[in-house]
Write a structure and sequence with these properties.
Blueprint lengths: L1 H23 L6 H46 L2 H12 L4 H27 L8 E11 L4 E7 L14 E3 L4 E11 L17 E10 L3 E8 L5 E5 L4 E9 L7 E8 L3 E9 L13 E8 L2
Parallel strand pairs: 3-11
Antiparallel strand pairs: 1-2, 1-4, 4-9, 5-8, 5-10, 6-9, 7-8, 10-11
Helix pairs in contact: 2-4, 3-4
Length: 294
């Protein structure tokens, strides 16, 4: 009987170990799916300091209120308290009003000071602390003409890099979208070392709304296993992928536009998510490309 129990216990341990190993060896259908899971983990990790900051702030405010109340008590027991009592006796208002007002003032001051002190020690997670310089590089194969549009918080210095993207409808146009990340200098001191990590993943949503006379296709860059592609009945196609917060990397994705007649294409690029907008909002792009007769 003892042997049977021992064997049963050993079997149970083996099953638990197997289940534990199986849970860790998660299978993903694509690199994008794996990166998505990693991004969720990073988001949860980033929220830990934020929650700790809130807890620390609450504790310091409570300590400030308690200290303010104690100071208020000693002040009330001083000659100043007798002065307040004399005013209360001469006033038509009840004495409890002056008593409550006295302590309310000191408690409020204590809580306010506790809150201010917490701001010196704790910093909440900063939003919009990353800049992404996005380059739209257009090239026409026949004329070998290459023109570039650059977007980003520091990209408006050279006006010569801006033009109205209009191309002949008789030629194909290749668009290469290049992305380069960097930290915003005015936000570096406000973010944690974790947030500055080059392994932080940034969600990118690229939407292309095409006209009836224009077709396009994926033409290289980010590998297909690294993004998802979804289309809707309005002729919009959304590509979702991740880039890293690493200035040494310059990921790009390419599309080849094949116009059949005059028309236009709307391209939108959004960085981050509404829940955590880590990239400066000015880096988001909405650009129309027109194909005209020449």
């Amino acid at each position: 009987m003892r042997k049977i129990c021992s064997c049963g216990l050993l079997l149970l341990v083996i099953i638990l170990l197997f289940s534990s190993c199986k849970g860790k060896d998660t299978k993903y259908s694509s690199v994008y799916e794996k990166q998505q899971a990693t991004y969720i983990e990073q988001l949860e990790e980033a929220s830990i300091p934020k929650n700790a900051n809130k807890t620390g702030t609450i504790i310091l405010v409570i300590i400030g209120i308690v200290i303010g109340g104690i100071i208020g008590y000693f002040v009330w027991a001083s000659p100043f308290g007798d002065f307040v009592v004399d005013i209360a006796l001469e006033s038509p208002l009840p004495a409890v009003f002056f008593y409550s007002l006295h302590f309310l003032v000191f408690i409020s001051l204590g809580g306010f000071l506790g809150f201010k002190i917490s701001n010196l020690f704790f910093r909440s997670i900063s939003n919009e602390y990353i800049n992404v310089e996005t380059s739209f590089v257009f090239s026409q194969h026949d004329g070998e003409e290459i023109r570039t549009l650059i977007y980003g918080t520091s990209a408006n210095e050279d006006a010569n890099k801006h033009f109205l993207p209009r191309f002949s409808s008789s030629q194909e146009v290749q668009l290469t979208i290049e992305m380069k990340t960097s930290m915003l200098k005015n936000k570096i001191k406000k973010v944690s070392k974790y947030q500055q990590s080059p392994e932080i993943l940034i969600p990118v949503e690229l939407k292309i709304s095409k006209g009836d006379n224009i077709s396009y296709k994926y033409d290289g860059g980010i590998q297909k296993d690294y993004y998802t592609e979804e289309s809707n009945s309005q002729g919009e196609t959304c590509y979702k992928f991740f880039i890293k917060n690493n200035p040494e990397l310059k990921p790009n994705i390419k599309f080849l536009f094949e116009p059949k007649d005059i028309g236009e294409v709307q391209i939108d690029v959004l960085y981050g998510t509404p829940e955590y907008k880590m990239v400066d909002s000015s880096c988001d792009i909405a650009q129309t490309i027109k194909f005209i007769e020449e």
